[in-house]
Amino acid sequence: MAWLVLVLSGLLETAWAIALDRSAGFTRPVASVVFAVTLVLSMAGLAYALREIPVGTGYAVWVGIGAVGTAVVGMVALGEPANLPRLLSLLLVVAGVIGLKLFH
To answer: If we measure between CA atoms, which residue out of 6, 14, 20 comes closest to residue 60?
Structure first.
């Protein structure tokens, strides 16, 4: 259960990062509220998961999921470049997250 919550919290990290960008410095109320809610839920999920998962592993997996998710949304929906070096770098992050889970 802790791993499922950790993955969902990592996805929520992606949501709050995108909402933070869309809030335009907290000048857009809806995006600002989405940011605040997803941030709190993401942190709460991380805190719950860390009750069973070591902090180094849990935090690295959480950040990795959030970073890869945010980069993918940026490339797919926000017009950020999706070149080979960027994609390979994201694959390395994914491999690291998988390795942390496998060797936990």
So the answer is: 6
pLDDT digits (tens, 9 = 90+) for 36-61: 999 999 999 999 999 999 999 999 99
pTM (two decimals)? 0.90
Contacts of 60 (CB under 8 A, 6+ apart): 96, 97, 100
* Half-sphere exposure (Cβ direction) of 50: Cα atoms closer than 13 Å: 16
Contact 8, 44 (CB under 8 A): no
Q: Which segments of the chain have a pLDDT < 50? A: none
Please tell me the distance from the alpha carbon of residue 48 to that of residue 1, in angstroms, as a whole number: 10
